[in-house]
Specification:
Elements (H helix, E strand, L loop, with lengths): L1 H20 L3 E4 L7 E4 L3 E5 L4 E5 L5 E4 L10 E7 L4 E6 L4 E5 L4 E5 L14 E7 L2 E6 L3 E5 L4 E6 L10 E7 L2 E6 L4 E5 L12 E4 L3 E7 L2 E6 L3 E6 L4 E7 L4 E6 L4 E5 L2 E5 L5 E6 L10 E7 L2 E6 L4 E5 L7 E2 L12 E4 L3 E5 L17 E5 L2 E5 L10 E6 L6 E8 L1 E6 L2 E6 L14 E8 L5 E5 L6 E4 L5 E4 L13 E6 L5 E5 L4 E5 L4 E5 L13 E6 L5 E5 L2 E5 L4 H4 L9 E4 L2 E4 L6 E6 L5 E5 L4 E4 L6 E5 L11 E6 L5 E6 L2 E6 L13 E3 L11 E4 L6 E6 L4 E6 L4 E4 L12 E8 L6 E8 L2
Protein name: T9SS type A sorting domain-containing protein
Pfam family, one: PorZ_N_b_propeller
Organism: Flavobacterium luteum
């Protein structure tokens, strides 16, 4: 009993922590891949990869639930809504189960199946079936009971021969017996009232073979084998006989009040109560696209069809009806590989490469843009055949001009949201590796508006597209013995216009076209002191330091100005002290990206450990976000970018795009745009007061109306926070507080007020 109490307290604590911080997070999820559907009399419940949405069949209103709301980031495999208990169950591939209470929107994650002493690869939840308040959960090892009233698990049934673990695909109740279809071990049944169902001897093998589903539909028991044959059960002979043959194997079968719906990848078959086909919906009837179907259900005479890549489609039983897409807006896919923010929007691409820069098989995905008007998608058919789009740069002088790098065909130019030109081997200085490989990465603009790119696996690996549409190429052979085997990653430009290029085999290359200076930071105490020669990012910060991320940890070049004076550049680790032990910051971490915010803090994205936010000198870890303590949908971070005006930090992961409302905005040039929020501070508000629009190194003093100083600080970037205490000792009283702001030289000043109501 104590274990159960501690377990539920742990779950509550996690959810409470999430709810306290959820206001700082936003989710930008794709709902295009429908995993499963469920329904009540007036609402459709849809599960995508790691998010849910609901459609009211009467009003048409759509709402969503994702990791920002407390949903797990694991991959969903099934969903079931109980109208009687007003609870929604979500099953996951790893065995996790989530219970969502419709009455208060609470979310409870239950880990009993995960914690079973079974191989992790057989814990997938395949199906839910409710009977008399008990849900029978079909898993890859057997069946588990779950009580909807007590929210507690009951018995587990291992129904294979001699009690072995077998994959159960679906269960149903027919004539007071429970029937289970299994993937490779036939259809088995037992008396539903039998109190000893956990005894495998109580389960009788009805028919052998491989079965994908079983369902009770009025007076019939229907089963489908994995070859696509529909069978009817004969209670007299206690056997199944072939009734119909589908054109391909079924991916889903379910009943509603009036219909039986069987789904294949390209068709939905709808049967009436007499099991007579009344409508067949084929994917090629949906003329805008020919989707792959995943499942289908109905509410009254409205049919809802889940698809693999095109979200939720609804139509009616009528043959003459049209098709409507009811999917919430979002990116094309959840696996966003690269993103780029502007003051008013952000762009996302979905091509990718693995840990050794291998882009195969190449991806044929489009491009997404988000702004206040919503999502805009550029389909693959309009990008001139460019595959594996992996890097983005937006012209700082013209937000309507965007460039996308491809590990397939070069550099794509987009103007006014329309692809306009593809730079490749025949019309630019970009060089190809082969007929099908022109690799461009590391896009970045310099301060004069020239676009710099990396061109991998060729001698002239660094190139620039000048503002007048002319090209220059620079050879890297002076410091690389075999540039034709070097793959380039990210590239950054510092205040001296030095380009810092990450490589897979030669660490970091520094290049400055003024004098054509080329230098290298790589492995070895006399060659740069990197922990490994596979570097992924080199980011200059606001204090002229270069933060280098590798696949085996972090290094810092103390002064970027040394690029011109030192013959050999040397980077060093950051040593921190934890629990009285000296250790290396980010030791052996596979670092994907490093981004510097307005306060010179570093956001560090990793391949498998989530996101770290560290202080300017790295001595303090301010945040460490993972899937376990935040709405981050994956610990694998593909990209990070910051909207410098708002402080919103975007995280592109393998399972979704989310953002965190940071407070470190870019510094302003003047104090003309200083503002304070919230103002007034009301009793129910528990957060901090933000003062934004600051210049760097501004002095901020806050005093009460009588002139008593209660807070003082110096800005790093464009925003500071005040916790409404008097130097951290106690909450200040209600009243008006004066905010005095002055520039470092004292010439420019500003005065603001904030009212606090306790």
């Amino acid at each position: 009993m104590k274990k159960h109490c501690l377990f539920f307290f742990f779950l509550w604590a996690i959810q409470f922590s999430f709810s306290q911080n959820s206001a700082l997070w936003k989710g930008y999820f794709s709902y295009n891949e429908i995993k499963d559907l469920s329904q009540s009399s007036d609402k459709l419940f849809a599960a995508s990869e790691n998010a849910l949405f609901y459609k009211n069949s009467i009003s048409g209103e759509i709402s969503t639930t994702n990791t920002v709301d407390g949903l797990s980031a694991q991959t969903i495999s099934s969903i079931y809504h109980s109208p009687n208990f007003k609870k929604t169950l979500v099953g996951y591939e790893n065995g996790l189960m989530t219970v969502i209470n419709e009455k208060d929107n609470s979310i409870l994650n239950v880990v009993d199946i995960i914690n079973k002493a079974l191989p992790s690869n057989i814990k997938r939840i395949n199906h839910f079936m409710e009977h008399n308040g008990i849900v029978y959960i079909s898993c890859d090892f057997g069946i588990v009971q779950f009580n909807l009233s007590t929210l507690q698990f009951g018995d587990t049934y291992f129904i294979g021969d001699s009690g072995s673990q077998i994959s159960v695909t679906q269960t149903t109740v027919f004539n007071d017996k429970i029937y289970a279809s299994t993937l490779t071990n036939g259809i088995r049944s037992a008396e539903i009232s039998n109190p000893n169902l956990n005894d495998y001897n109580q389960w009788v093998l009805i028919v052998s073979g491989n079965w994908s589903s079983i369902e009770t539909f009025h007076s019939e028991l229907i089963a489908i084998d994995t070859s696509g044959y529909i069978h009817k059960y004969n209670s007299v002979s206690n056997s199944f006989a072939v009734y119909l043959q589908l054109p391909s194997k079924a991916v889903d079968m379910r009943k509603t009040d009036n219909y039986l719906l069987i789904t294949t990848a390209y068709s939905v078959f709808i049967y009436n109560k007499q099991v007579t086909l009344i409508r067949q919906i084929n994917s090629n009837q949906i003329t805008d696209f020919s989707p792959n179907f995943t499942c289908a259900t109905s509410i009254n005479d409205i049919v809802y069809i889940g698809t693999k890549q095109n979200g939720l489609i609804n139509t009616t039983i009528s043959e003459s009806s049209t098709f409507e897409n009811s999917t919430p807006s979002g990116p094309l896919r959840n696996s966003v590989f690269a993103l780029k923010t502007t003051p008013t929007s952000f762009w996302a691409v979905y091509g990718d490469y693995d840990s050794v820069y291998n882009p195969y098989p190449k991806d044929s995905y489009g491009i997404s843009k988000f702004n206040k008007a919503g999502w805009l998608h550029i389909p693959y058919e309009k990008v001139f055949g460019s595959k594996s789009l992996i890097s983005i740069a937006v012209d700082p002088n013209n937000e309507n001009k965007v460039y996308i790098g491809s590990l397939d065909s070069g550099l794509l130019k987009i103007e006014n949201d329309t692809p306009s030109f593809l730079y490749g081997k025949t019309n630019s200085s970009i060089e190809a590796i082969s007929d099908n490989d022109t690799w461009v990465n590391g896009l970045v603009f310099d301060k004069t508006g020239n676009l710099w790119i990396n061109n991998s696996l060729v001698e002239n690996g660094i190139k620039t597209l000048k503002t007048k549409e002319t090209w220059l190429s620079f050879s890297i052979k002076p410091i690389l013995s075999n540039p034709n085997k070097t793959i380039f990653g990210r590239m950054e430009i510092d205040k001296n216009e030095t380009k810092w290029v990450a490589t897979n085999k030669n660490g970091i290359i520094g290049f400055n076209e003024n004098g054509k200076v080329l230098k290298k930071i790589t492995v070895g105490s006399d060659a740069g002191n990197l922990p490994i020669d596979d570097a992924r990012v080199a980011t200059p910060d606001n204090n002229k330091q270069l933060w280098i991320g590798t696949t085996k940890g972090l290094r810092i070049l103390s002064n970027i100005d040394s690029f011109f004076s030192d013959e050999q550049l040397t980077a060093n680790p950051i040593i921190i002290v934890e629990e009285n032990l000296a250790q290396e910051l980010m030791y052996e971490q596979f670092i994907i990206d490093i981004v510097v915010d307005g306060a010179n803090n570093k956001w560090i994205g990793t391949a498998d450990s989530g996101v770290f936010l560290v202080s300017p000198d790295g001595q303090q870890t301010i945040h460490h976000f993972t899937i376990n303590n935040s709405p981050l949908p994956s610990n694998t971070i593909n990209d990070i970018d910051i909207n410098g005006e708002t402080g919103e930090v975007f995280f592109a992961t393998t399972k979704g795009l989310v953002s965190y409302k940071g407070t470190s905005t870019d510094a302003n040039e003047t104090l003309n745009n200083v503002y304070v929020y919230p103002n007034p501070v009301r009793p129910e508000y528990t957060g901090t007061v933000k003062i934004s629009g600051l210049i760097n190194k501004a002095t901020i003093k806050i005093a009460d109306i009588e002139g008593n100083l209660v807070y003082e600080t110096t800005s790093e970037g464009g925003t500071i926070e005040w916790d409404t205490t008097a130097f951290g000792k106690y909450k200040v009283a209600s009243g008006v507080y004066m905010i005095f702001i002055s520039a470092q030289d004292g010439i420019e000043t500003k005065v603001k007020k904030v009212m606090i109501i306790r």
